[in-house]
Each structure stands twice: as structure tokens, then as C-alpha cells.
Amino acid sequence: MNNLEKKFVVGVDIGGQSAKCGVVDARGNVIAQTRIVSNTQTEAEDFVKELAVALKGIIAQAGAEGQVRGIGVGAPNGNHYTGQIEGAVNLTWGAGRVIDLAKMLSAEMDGIPVALTNDANAAAMGEMTYGAARGMKDFIMITLGTGVGSGIVVNGEVVYGHDGFAGELGHTAIVRHNGRPCNCGKTGCLEAYASASGLCRTAREWLELTDEPSIMRSYDVLTPINIFDAAKQGDKLAQKVFEYAGTMLGMAFADFIQFSAPEAIVLFGGLTHSREFFTDAIEKAMNANVLPLWRGKVKIIYSELKESDAAILGASALAWEL
Amino acid sequence: MNNLEKKFVVGVDIGGQSAKCGVVDARGNVIAQTRIVSNTQTEAEDFVKELAVALKGIIAQAGAEGQVRGIGVGAPNGNHYTGQIEGAVNLTWGAGRVIDLAKMLSAEMDGIPVALTNDANAAAMGEMTYGAARGMKDFIMITLGTGVGSGIVVNGEVVYGHDGFAGELGHTAIVRHNGRPCNCGKTGCLEAYASASGLCRTAREWLELTDEPSIMRSYDVLTPINIFDAAKQGDKLAQKVFEYAGTMLGMAFADFIQFSAPEAIVLFGGLTHSREFFTDAIEKAMNANVLPLWRGKVKIIYSELKESDAAILGASALAWEL
Q: Is residue B95 over pLDDT 90?
């Protein structure tokens, strides 16, 4: 069978805890899926062997043997050009090493071609192929989760840059003096204000610095979920915590627009469940900080992929290009 | 003759005072050139008619009749997608209007195809085709003149974005609170600190705010040229003025790198004559503010095009793609 006649692709989303895997058809239906743990292995070889067994299992379950065109993998620090995972600190088998993941997995999978990229680029591919960015040639995907990730699409192609690592918009300087320390070692990065941990930090700081009454004072721990709960109950301080994150995002988005003039900025990730409390703040700050020619013109939209499938779909979208 | 067999292109660089025009061969030699004034006409039709006469003159002079593949035009607010100049405030015949320049010029030139873009994108094309960025697929061109312009190249193509206006990096927010007013109506833009007028403003402010001795105190007016003269004579304050502009550029470049991961940032324009006084400051600030993976890896380089030819070459490079 000619490779282009093959009707299925496989998507693999590797995270710090588990790897989600699925067999996907051209319409974006996940025909079969599974997940394996990714934090018990100390050697990449062991992880790849277990992954291959799991993939063969779901390919058989989907009745797709011999019909898989390619495997797309999204992974932290995944480099599209080299097929390698380079120094991924949150993988038990990846920290401080360069893992030849695409080559290793293809060998275990009887030569099925494997493409690799980072998780945010995979999300952008998924949204362009199956989701909210269908038909768009220029957009920016921002993932709001533990960190702030990004995948940039220009003229219908993901921007990889000279070395394969383009699109680190979470580390844009949003506060240039006395900024919060970021996990990357710098200070004042967008991620330190608009990620899940940034949101919690804002809440903690404001609870300490003010006497403003808040339901949040009764919580044992602060999480994005219980700050959201407080906001929904009308808690003004909790609402302001979300607005502050939205304002930081909006200021950063203004500069992103001036760079690549996207049609839309697409938001994805856990924090987007709380969108009702920050979308207005994003749009207000974005339009106040962008050149007049773009004011009111760039859409803020949200992922349309079912969250349970999104990571698999995003990674699988890569494989259609193989 | 098949259009691809034609051996010459024409480049036109439209500025607020004059339009420079040249006939260019495939090696980047300017075979014949001229310039016409661009600030006496009140109607675009008149400007285009005068331009066409001038172009026919240099085409005849170069012996290139019937052998011009296309005409590339760089102009303020030039839109590659539409071929229009949209609301160019510094053109006597352009302010507040949409000028169908590509179509009008092609009609006057007996149907020779015309491509249009803004001046910074044209500069990027010129550098990629004939200059310092030959062979590069990912770089950012920054023009340091009256304003700060930019042309972004990703994967060998100029980034135009959804609407054709991508690449307004001079309006990146570099000071988020109490920033200087910028000509665009915003405050704190890179252009307000790192353009020719930004440089002069820094000098004026520091001369007023401090008692630091400086040769500049004896000048009637401050210009980038006489600040440069002072710096060359060892004037510490003048040197710090350049370093400050370099630091602002370097901080902004760090975020640009995190966006598109370019191989190099190419600098062009009048201020680059003073490069000896700001290159170190750019590199220091850039490397201090970028993610560790790019530290020390992105080159700061300077245009290699002869300044008198650069604008024509840049615009002409567009025409090879027609």
C-alpha cells in the first residue's frame, strides 16, 4: 500500500506523569486510545519499548494494522528538526540528556515514520487541523496550564525557527523590574503571572498584602480550581486575581500581534475553564497596547477540541504531514 | 520572451522626500539609477506618472527594454497582499488615503508586474537576496533610522501575517510604566528609545537631569551625528546615550528571539554607523534577557549592502519573486 493511501495516524502526547496515545482517522475521530505511565522508567529505551507495545495494542484494537501513515509525538522540549527530546527536566528518563525519540520509536514500530514536536506546537497543529483554527493561516496558540506555552502558525506552517525551538512566548518579559522569578531562571516572564502557579501566587500575595475580605482566606491551599470557585461565588478578590492574569496576557498579546499579525489568538489548557473571569481583561489590555491598526481586530478564541482528546489529536496532526 | 527569461528587475524605494529607482541584474548590480521628488505631488496619479517616466528612462539607459521581469516597490505602509499604500502620513499624496499603487504603476508601465511591500520588509528581502543574510532562512531585519522598522523572515519567507502588516517590532513595549510617548500614539515603544529621535531625546534628558560634563553641552542642536562625534572624542555621557539605546534594543531582541528563534538579527540604517558604541550593550542585554538555550547563540550582524544602493536592491529583490 502506498503510504498516502493509509487511512490512520497515531498521536502520542508525552507528559511528566503519563503518555496518552490514540489512533486517529482523517476526520479527527479517536478510534482507540490508551495511556501508559511515563515517570517510572529511568532509561528512555524502556519507556520507548513500553510505548511501542501500547501503540501496537491500540492499532490492533482499531483494526488499523498496516494502515498507519505515521506517528506524531508531542513532548516537552521536543525538536521537530532533529526528532530529539533535549534536556526535558520533568521526564524521569529525559533530564540532562538528548533522547533520539523519533528514531527509537520508529525502529520499535517496524519503520512507521515518526514526527516529534513540543506539546504547544502539537496543540497548534491540532487546532489548525481539527479545531478552532480550521482554515486559518496565521494564528498563535497559547496554552495556559502549569506553564504558559505557545505554538505560532505563520502562513499555514508552524514556526520552528533556526534551531527548532521557536515559540517560547511564556518567557516574554512582562515585568522588567522586580519581576517574579520564573522556573526558567529569569524574572518577570509572562509564565510567572499567567500560568496556574502564577495565578495562585497572585492570590497568595494579595491575601497577605491586603485586608480585603475573601472566601479564599478560608482555604487550606490555593489552587486554580478553588480560586475559580471563589470567583464564581462573587468573591471580588478572586475575580481580580483572574483579571490580573488576563491583563498580563493582553499586554503580551499586543506585542505578539505586532510581530506576526495573526488572525486570532487561540487559548487552550486548564485555566481556560475560568475564561469568563479573564477574557474581558485580555481584550482590554491587548487593545490598549497594540497599534491602532489592529485595535478590535484580532480575535481571542478558545480551543474547540474535546479536552480528553486534544493532546492526542494535536500530536496526530503532525503525522499527516509525514 | 518568457517572463522568467527576462534578465532585469527594477527597484523603487519611496520615501517622504524622494523615490530612488534603479535597474538591477541578477547579481545585484545596479545598472542604472535615478531619483524623483515625492513630496511635491498632491495626487498619487501625478506621482505615478512621473515615476513611470523616470523608470522608462533608466530602463532605456540600461538597455533593458522588454527585459524587465518585474518592478518591486518599498514604501511606507505598503501592503504586499493588496499592492496598496494605506494611510501613509508622511507622503504628501498618501495621508488619509488608500493608494492602489501596484495596479496604477503596472498600468503606466505597459503591464510589467509590480510587487509592493513596506520599506523594512524590502530591506530584509535585499539582505537575504544580496547581503548579510544570504543563505539564511530565519532572521530578523531591524532598521534603525528616523523610526525603528522591522522585516521578519521565517523559513525563507517574509512574514506578512493575516492582513499584510506583520513586523511592527519598533512598537514593542519596552517601558511599560511612564514610558516616553511614541509617534504612534502609544507610550514606551522601542522606537521612542532606539530611533534617531529617541537617541537625541535620551541625550537631551540626561543633559538636563545631570551636571555631568559633556562636549554635547556646547552643541546648538543635538543630532545622532554630533552625539556620535562626541562619543568618538571620548565623551562618557555621549557613549552612555548609545549604550542605553543598545540596552533597550537588546532587551527587545531577547523577546524577538523567543518568538521566532532567528539565526541572526541584522541591523541596517543610519544609526548603524555608530555601532561601535552600542553593539556590546545590545549583546549584553540580549543575552541577559533571553532563555538560556539561546544565550550567546544568536548573531548580531550588520547590513552588507552599500547604503546608496540598499533601498533599491531591497525593493528590487521583491520583483524576482513575481
A: no
Of B136, B157, B168, the CB nearest to A258: B168
pTM passes above 0.90: yes
Query: CB of A153 within 8 A of CB of A159?
Result: yes
pLDDT of residue A307: 74
- Complex ipTM: 0.93
CATH, domain range B136-302: 3.30.420.40
Summarised one tens digit per residue, pLDDT across range A178-225 is 999 999 999 999 999 999 999 999 999 999 999 999 999 999 999 999
Name all contacts of A83-90 with Cβ < 8 Å and 24+ positions apart.
Answer: A83/A114, A83/A115, A83/A116, A84/A116, A85/A14, A85/A116, A90/A16
Only one residue has cell 523572515, namely B153
Cell triple for residue B154? 521565517
C-alpha cell at A164: 527548532
Residue in the block written with cell 548579510: B132
A260 near A269, Cβ under 8 Å? no
Residue A306 pLDDT > 90: no
Four-way CATH pick for A3-126+308-319: 3.40.640.10, 3.30.420.40, 3.40.50.1220, 3.20.20.70: 3.30.420.40
A219 min Cα distance to partner chain B (Å): 34
Q: Mark yes or no for CB contact B165/A137 under 8 Å.
A: no
Copy the grid coordinates of residue A85.
527530546
What value does the mean pLDDT of chain B take? 95
CA distance A309 to chain B (A): 27
Query: Could you tell me the three cell numbers for A7?
Result: 487511512
- Mean pLDDT over A73-98 rounds to 90
Residues in A touching B173 (Cβ below 8 Å): 251, 254-255, 289
